[in-house]
Amino acid sequence: MKELVLTPGTVVMLAAMAAWAAWAVRRITHRGLCDCGDHCGDAGACSSGCSCGGCGAAEKMVADMGRSLEGPKG
């Protein structure tokens, strides 16, 4: 079995992946799993929970999924 060699490039890549993971966890803990604010233009819309009442992004997604399940027309 080969040894694990930690070169400077490997260390940089591992640090970058750890930073991305920390950013993702921070984003989920602060914003939750709701991203409707990204589509509505109001960045704080989901900070207190997922209340996308004024945003049609979720409704549009459901409608698109329904149309795709219906299949091609004709």
Q: Can you put this structure into words, describing what you see?
A:
The protein is mainly α and 74 residues long. Helices cover 58% and strands 0% of the residues. The radius of gyration is 20 Å and the shape is elongated. The chain starts with 7 loop residues before the first helix and ends with a helix. The mean pLDDT is 75.
Overall body shape: elongated
Mean pLDDT: 75
Q: For this entry, what is the oligomeric state of its chains?
A: single chain
What is the percent of helical residues? 55-70%
Q: What is the N-to-C order of secondary-structure elements (H for helix, E for strand)?
A: HHH
Rg calc: 20 Å
Question: Could you tell me the strand content as a percent range?
Answer: under 5%
Largest sheet: none
Uncertain ranges: none
Number of strands: 0
Terminal Cα span: 60 Å
- Count of individual helical segments: 3
What would you call the structural class?
Answer: mainly alpha
What is the compact description of this entry?
With 74 residues, the protein is an all-alpha fold.
Name some characteristics of this structure.
74 residues, mainly alpha, 0% strand
